[in-house]
Amino acid sequence: MTAVGIICEYNPFHNGHKHQIAQAKKLSGCDACVCVMSGSFVQRGEVAVYDKWSRTKAALENGADLVIELPAWYVLQSADVFAKGGIEILTKSSLVDAISFGSESADGDALMRCAKILTSEDAALKLQIKKIMQSGASYPAALQSAMDVIYPEISDYIKNPNDMLGVAYISAMLRCGADFKIYPVARHMAEHHSTETDGIYASSTAIRNAIAKGSDVSALIPYELSGDTYRMSNLENFILGFYRTCNADNLKNLPLIEDGFENKLISAAKQATSLDEFYQAMVSRRYTLSRVKRTVLAGIIGMDKGRECDYVRVLGMTDKGAALLKESKEKTRLPFVVKTADFTPSTNSTFEYDILATDIAALACENVKNRKSGSDFYNSPVKI
After folding, report:
1. In angstroms, rounded to a whole number, what is the distance separating the alpha carbons of residues 227 and 50?
2. What's the rounded Cα separation, in Å, for the pair 168 and 84?
3. Distance between CA atoms of 188 and 72, rounded to whole angstroms?
4. I need a surface site. Which of 87, 112, 125, 383 has the fewest CB within 10 A?
5. What is the pLDDT of residues 112-138, one digit of tens each?
6. What share of the chain is helix, strand, coil (3-state, %, to 5)?
């Protein structure tokens, strides 16, 4: 059986995602689709609007065959680390033959060229990036500016969010020696951060905003919306209290901490009266809002450097997905974890952070009766 992999968040799953899965299967000619999905936390530095099992079920009902979890340790870092985590899991698990991703350009050749440049140790590009960052710019901003100077003919391909993430996926492939075929899928209708909800396509941002307002989103999603929603605002007192009582030494080993930022986190928490105020006090040219929010969540679950993923956590499957798991069992370099309690992680595993992320995200549930911990141990993989 052949399979195409998609690295995703589905926050929440919508019509555009269903279209992407269908196109990924069509373009690749693969029999199955494997989704590596963010769990309880997402890369924007927030809890997912629905729990990971609800999002898994939506994906399986609309074209996915197997959903596995992208560990929180990768999710709460830069786009490059996010991409690296997804590609490494797909590579080591031997589950897929190809990858697919949404793209503004859908120009695989140009994206591959960008990726090769970024992985080639280009001295001129590195020097230009360093010069720009010395002025206080963030790495993504410095990279774009440097590409404009040195490779203007292709620099536009890293200015759009999905193209840039596609380049990150290909770069991760090149670095780990994976030989997946790549199939970019043109984004259908809605732009990445568009707030429009006309027609049947809208961005995840627009749909989350609509859900928060209690608006009808039934035309925008290919399933019946159900289940509890989760909101970051429900974690406000917990987060501010955590950082007001935190020891700076406990934050120094966070992957995203630089230049004494741990002290700024604690100081800002003591002065802030809301989450938004807390975040904004730390935003700078170097620390974007998304980076600040990821760092905040990483600190809460005690993330540190030097961890590795030593498992493939199965969130759900169809019959075809189950057959694919069986076929790959002899080839995988990582154990497939179907029952959480049966897995014994290594001492430097990322696994503990997935459990902590789920337990903390539970506190953000709108339904106070479902804020208990331990969901990872009493929820079985979804089967469709």
Report:
1. 7
2. 8
3. 28
4. 383
5. 999 998 898 788 888 999 889 888 887
6. 50, 10, 40
For residue 348, how many C-alpha atoms fall within 13 Å in the half-sphere facing its CB? 4
Identity of the residue numbered 239: I
Separation between Cα atoms, residue 155 and residue 142, nearest integer Å: 12
Which SS3 state, helix, strand or coil, does residue 187 take? coil
Token pair of 112, please?
Answer: 């591959």
Q: Which tokens belong to 158?
A: 């890293």
Q: What is the C-alpha to C-alpha distance for residues 184 and 111, in angstroms, rounded to an integer?
A: 9
Taking 80 as the threshold, does the pLDDT of residue 292 lie above it?
yes
Q: Which amino acid is at 167?
A: V
- Residue recorded with tokens 């080839």: 331
Closest CA to 100 of 179, 194, 202, 21: 21
Joined together, the tokens standing for residue 181 give 């075929």
pLDDT over 70 (residue 293): yes
| Residues found in the chain | 384
Three-state DSSP class for residue 211: helix
Dihedral angle at the C-alpha atoms of 296, 167, 17, 339, nearest 10 degrees? -60
34 close to 4: Cβ distance less than 8 angstroms: yes
Q: CA dist 199 to 5, 17, 117, 217, Å?
A: 28, 15, 39, 11
Asked if residues 67 and 73 have their Cβ atoms less than 8 Å apart, the reply is no
Q: How far apart are CA 380 and CA 205, in angstroms?
A: 29
